[in-house]
Amino acid sequence: MGTRILKLLLQWVAAFSVLMLLLLLPREVEIESGPSGEFEAAHYHYSIGAHVESIKEFFTPLMNGEGFGTDSYNRPFISHAWDMMQRSLWLIIPAFFISIFTGVAKGVFDFKTRHGKRKLAGLQATWVGLSVPDLVFIIFIQMALMYLNMKGIITGLSLYGAGNPEAVVLNVIYLSIFPMFYLANITYSALSDENGADYIRTARAKGSSSFKLLYIHMLRNGLAKLFVHTNTIVLYLLSNLFVIEYFTNYRGAAYYFKEYIAVSNVINGPDSLLLNTGAIAAFAFFFTILILLAGLVSQVARGFLLPHERGGNG
After folding, report:
1. Neighbours of 272 (CB within 10 A)
2. Residue 199 belongs to what domain range?
3. Would you give the DSSP letter of residue 30?
4. How far is 25 from 21, CA to CA, in rounded Å?
5. Which of 16, 51, 245, 279 pairs as cysteine with 255 (C-beta 3.0–4.6 A)?
6. CA contacts within 13 A on the Cβ side of 132
7. Of the candidates 218, 121, 129, 118, which has an alpha carbon nearest to the alpha carbon of residue 179?
8. What confidence tens digit (pLDDT) does each residue in 105-119 have?
């Protein structure tokens, strides 16, 4: 397990280094103007020397203790990114655990009802949840709440912004939808695989109860397969976070990260593109750290659930 954790750390260093190299690509462009001075085209030419100079310009103040720089309000980018990340964590952490518990519960329900009349609410509902974009569910929930508010059944709800508890709760629900269905499908597949194992047939022949077979043997052994997908769950949460924060005007890390990236399309002066490299690097650092932590949790959990992997070198 130690080897795998070390490999994860090295992979994170390599991935973040590549991101920084891409972020620090030289931004100078050659502007082509028309006869009247109007803009016609912009031409970009890459230079290794310019790239090296861009890296030096970024890391020199960082090594001098100046950090990633400051924004227009004289706030350090790293502090602002951390404050916004904490705001987003109010969505990510609850959504992560809700996705796991409800996803596993839904997967168990799908497995138990796979041959019965409740299959429509079980396995088929999971397939629908995986097939339909979660944005459809979000819009449906919002329209339903707006209708109830219009009828006076539910009043005082604020669906947008970051300062309202109900907006936070709704955003957590929105964020949990697709990962829950995804994990339910994984749980169902894991239980189906375990159901055909030799030890299950032997235990069933000895008269073990279905409850013991499902919850003590099959589900416990299947959990190891579920934790392999921890990184995937976190990636789904983060990718959906950008959509949900922007859609609901929840001003967290994903919202501001998108705003800082968007300005890179603006031409700043005659020969460069405006890009807040310090802000983007600060937000990217925290997002990649979150992915790294998910991978570490996955490896530690696998080590406890699969004792033979604790000393593994794979």
Report:
1. 13
2. 87-234
3. E
4. 6
5. 245
6. 14
7. 129
8. 898 888 888 887 788
Question: What is the Cα–Cα distance from 235 to 229, expressed in whole angstroms?
Answer: 10
C-beta of residue 179 within 8 angstroms of C-beta of residue 91 = no
Are 190 and 220 contacting, i.e. CB atoms less than 8 angstroms apart?
no
- Name the H helices within 113-164: 123-131, 134-150
Q: Within 13 Å of residue 223, how many CA atoms lie on the same side as its CB?
A: 19
Which residue type is seen at 262?
A
Which two three-digit tokens encode residue 166? 């109900």
Tokens of 108: 């168990």
Confidence (pTM): 0.81
Helix axes 123-131, 165-195, angle to 10 degrees: 120
The pLDDT confidence band at residue 273, using thresholds 50, 70 and 90, is: low
pLDDT at 223 over 90: no
pLDDT digits (tens, 9 = 90+) for 90-149: 999 999 999 989 998 898 888 888 887 788 888 889 988 889 888 888 888 888 888 888
Is 220 among the domain residues? yes
Using CA atoms, how far apart are residues 209 and 222, in angstroms rounded to an integer? 18
Q: Per residue in 53-69, pLDDT tens? A: 989 988 888 888 777 88
What are the tens digits of pLDDT across the range 37-46?
666 776 777 8
Q: How would you class 46 by CB atoms within 10 Å of its CB: exposed for 0-12, middle for 13-18, buried for 19 or more?
A: exposed
Is residue 248 a part of any domain in this protein?
no
Burial 244-269 (b: 16+ CB within 10 A, else e): bbebbebbbbbbbbeebeeeeeeeee
On the question of pLDDT at 191 being above 90, the answer is no
Q: Has residue 43 been placed in a domain?
A: no
Domain presence at residue 103: yes
Domain tally for the chain? 1
Can you say whether residue 250 is alpha, beta or left, with left for phi > 0 and alpha for psi between -120 and 50 degrees? beta
